Amino acid sequence: MDVPAGRLFFEEEGAGPAVILMHAGVADRTMWDEQVEAFAEEHLVVRYDALGFGRSTPPDADHAPHEDLRRLLDHLDLGRVALVGVSMSGGIAVDFALAHPERLRALTPVAAGLDGYDWSGDELLRQFGADERAALEAGDVDAAVELNLRVWVDGPTRRPDQVAASVRERVRQMQRAIFERGEPAGQPLPLEPFAITRLEEIRAPTLAIVGDQDVPAIREITNLIATRVPGARKHVITNAAHLPNMERPEEFNRIVLEFLHSVEA
Question: With the C-alpha atoms ordered 92, 38, 81, 74, is the resulting torsion angle positive or negative?
Fold first, then answer.
């Protein structure tokens, strides 16, 4: 489907209350391969590639990702939906909850980013950002990909051999594809005022999920969401870093489906 800054690729499967699966910034819609079948038994499952990822086009202008999501829901004639967003898309889901509360049935931010959060206090991420830029400027895509794997897949305390090789390889391929597309012509625009100042406004039932091996800043953001969104719940998945749905799919599916069932009931 067309959106103002490009074209979105999406897939849908199943029938029932709609659940939108939104991918991380190191991935694309295929990161949800272990969720679609389980969720589609009782839900209409929609997953899509954000602009610049997977089979969607790179953005040719600045754009608001939460409004691209709203346009997708309009295109599919969906009313109130449940959002499950990881990392980058966790932040997009929070923005959507604030911009379009009437369209939201349930909110599940997973290892979410959050616009307005001060990242400067996280030395690990500051160093990661500098090293990634240096690798890309030198044309060393392999090194940049490996840096992302070490931070987002392994986490700050685990060795690569302590993480499933299949997960690392899938993320390696997705991240490499993102880098190989080059810099997009347009950038994502956050909601204003920033979401971090408005969490108390969210009224949708909310379940915040994080892996215990994720970076400290993401764990702190999860705590902010869980404590400041009225009635929010939190679940920590053990021995998982930034992509817990890929590392611990059975636990992830069970926790999220139980949450959705409780909302639908």
Answer: positive
Domain boundaries, the chain: 2-118+184-264, 120-180
- Confidence band of 120 (pLDDT split at 50, 70, 90): confident
Q: Where are the beta strands (DSSP E) in 52-146?
A: 81-86, 104-110
What pTM, to 2 d.p., does this model score? 0.98
At residue 237, φ and ψ (nearest 5 deg) are -95, 120
CATH number of the 2-118+184-264 domain? 3.40.50.1820
Whole-Å CA distances, 197 to 95, 101, 116, 201, 202? 11, 16, 8, 9, 11
Cα 157 to Cα 18, 103, 142, 234, 251, distances in angstroms: 37, 39, 22, 22, 22
Task: State yes or no: pLDDT of 121 exceeds 90.
Answer: no
Sorting pLDDT into bands at 50, 70 and 90, what band is 86?
very high
